[in-house]
Amino acid sequence: MFLAIKELKHSKLRFLLIGFITVLIAWLVFILAGLGNGLSNLSAATFKNMDADYVVFEEGSRNSMSRSILSESMIDQLKEQADVKDAAGMGATMTTVINDTDVDEVKVDAAIIGITPGSFLEPKVIEGRQLDANNPLEVIANDSLKDQGYKIGDTLKIEGSLEELKIVGFVTNETYNHIPSIFTTLDKWRAVQYAAPGSNKGIEDPVNAIMLQGENINAENLSKSFDNTDIVTKAAAIQGLPGYKEESGTITLMLAFLLAISAFVLGVFFYVLTLQKSNQFGILKAIGASNRFLGRSIVSQVFVLSLTSIIIGILLTYGTALILPEGMPFMLDVRLVVIYSLLLLVISTLGSLISVRRITKIDPLLAIGRVE
Amino acid sequence: MTILEFKNVSKIYQQGENEVHALKNVSLSVDKGEFIAVIGPSGSGKSTFLSIAGALLHATEGDVILNGINLKDVKPKELSKLRLKEIGFILQTSNLVPYLNVLEQLLVVKKMAGKVTKADKEYAKELLQSLGLEKKMKKYPEHLSGGERQRTAIARAFMNDPSIILADEPTASLDSRRAHEVVQLIAKETKTRNKAAIMVTHDERMLSYCDRVFRMEDGVLKPDESFTKGKSQPVLV
Predict the structure, then answer these.
(1) CA distance B138 to chain A (A)
(2) Are A297 and A4 in contact (CB under 8 A)?
(3) Residue B214 pLDDT class (50, 70, 90 cuts)
């Protein structure tokens, strides 16, 4: 540590340049992580927010809400099962809504989410009031609709349907498939989704999926005792959302490359520095420095440099988040920052190990018989 | 009291098909308080001799006994510890760590062994003072003259309180006045601190400070008969 800090202080410019590159890499990692997280949130927030552990789909729907259709009547039976604490059905439909109150009649893409009012699937409103089971014409909507001029009390028309719905409350961070969610009763949702006669395949009270609460549920056994069902964890169900896997896969791949590159860049920088200092290390070894002493010095140097750079990178990232345009799906929570910081730190320290390996190979004999 | 003893030491390098005999049957013993010089043309085996004495190279044959320890018996991993404890190296100029100031150059030796105590700091200051560097303690090597750098190196060599001081061409790249000054200081510190010291040099002007002189030729070490102590007049500094 002694040598490491002294050298950092003495060769400021050199380490400033290396630190600068590390800052840029850290910055990029955090921004990409934030965007990736924001994007995946946009596509699945409503799903992720639901306080459920398992999801029941129709057999063969391959964990996709849009391919699955089940009867709501199953819920009572499900609730009776051991380990199942609660169950509630839901449905989702992509559509377009028109603000009927507004003179301009702004059209907005929205996901109509059908739920049972009062069930654990209903999100808490941040404004207005919750859904009312006795008043099926009321809806609660994601607050991003406010940006389009929607207000509490506005009436909505769903395209292709004549019914008028009224916004009674706003929820926040509720998006599905990248568009804002509008929550309504299951009945109203069915009216939109299965408007065409026969489109419900003759299933009574259809829902897309049934969400289950209960951490100890044995999905395999449960799905055997219910005909025509597939039961998966919520995490697996999220993966089944259209485009979700592909999207997060792309981002993850980019992040993985970035982390690998950062390890490589830092590793190579310090390796070159170590090569340059071979003679110096030889002399220190002749005087009596052990490989451990010198190795520790390199590792702690990389550690201090990476840590400082990562902290600056974090500050820059939050600075950037402030000036990002409103619609940009940027979402960076503390957990994510900590995870990627640790990952960067570990990776860069690992990169310094090739320098340590080099040091162990330096012969202290370099110090003797060398007249400059 | 004998500090360093070479008993019929030979060193053979394998160069392809050929064997190079860098040292041939070298025997020598150095006592406490003794300052000896080894001179000889380049390629004569001086550096090999110093490297073996400094536990940087193993002898092919023979025994090297340093302060009662036969270097043959020391495990490779323990060698750096042995050097740290028993040997003080004075190397050519510019062999200081560029990013440490004069005082830190000395303290880093203690760091290698563990912690720097207050007593270590005092000792380092005392050493620097006796070498006339008390005003340069906070200076970095780039701001020191060649002589000052070499004096720092001398102080560093004494810092770990070693049994023996090994100096490798300490006057290389110094002008005559500074060279005398440096060798004189090595001689002085060796005497006052009662250490053994070996200086390898090709600079014959410096021999008058030494107690004994050996000449190395083609790997054979012989006492230099022509040498008597104090024959050539040292330049006053």
Answers:
(1) 13
(2) yes
(3) very high
